[in-house]
Amino acid sequence: MADHAGSRPRRSTAVPLAAFAAGAVVAVLLGVVGRVHDPTLAGTTDLGFRTVIEMKVALSTVIGVLVVLQLVSTLWLYGRIGRRAPPWLGTAHRVSGTLALLLAVFVGYSCLWALGLEVGTLHTGEEVPLRAVVHGVLGCAVFGAVVVKLVAVRAHRSPGWFLPVAGGVLFSLLLAVVLTSAGWYVAARGWPSHPGY
Predict the structure, then answer these.
(1) Beta bridge mates, 94
(2) pTM, 2 dp
(3) Reduced to 3 states, what is the DSSP secondary structure of residue 127?
(4) N or C: which end of the chain has fewer CB within 10 A?
(5) Within a domain: residue 88?
(6) Nearest partner of 26 among 126, 153, 144, 108, judged by Cα
(7) Cβ contact 145:169 at 8 Å
(8) Whole-number mean pLDDT of the chain?
(9) Burial (Cβ within 10 Å: 0-12, 13-18, ≥19) of residue 85
(10) Position 69 in a domain
(11) Residue 196 lies in a domain
């Protein structure tokens, strides 16, 4: 009998381990920058909303919708739901994922630059709410997870579990960040009003 195992490319866990390590470094570095940076609104935009916070809520909601669409399209592409996926779905999946990532970078920059990573006590002497601490830490972790996901998409010799795990971690983190920001804001204060409407 011929040995067919030698003809298959060897799957290595080195790439996933390196990707998770690089993602952790990115997340920690963002957290450090968020802690040492003096928050300022200079260099941010509100896109016509009353505040940067309201702009972030609106865009975070869009990100949340795109993230859910990513999950649905992934399940459809892999045959887990519905009929056979239409040919355009792969392109739509990549475009919506790219748009979600670009919006996340924009919102993340605005958050990190305008607010920093809030932990401990505010300048007013008040304790930072646990929700804000969790949101900030998860926000930093999102960009570490983006690094892992980008490597997973391109790493063809990594184990079969790597891409679904990387995608699942990124999905979960993004959803948690949206819920601890936009979800909390809308529940507590209602939908932000845009002066142009």
Answers:
(1) none
(2) 0.85
(3) strand
(4) N
(5) no
(6) 144
(7) yes
(8) 87
(9) middle
(10) no
(11) no
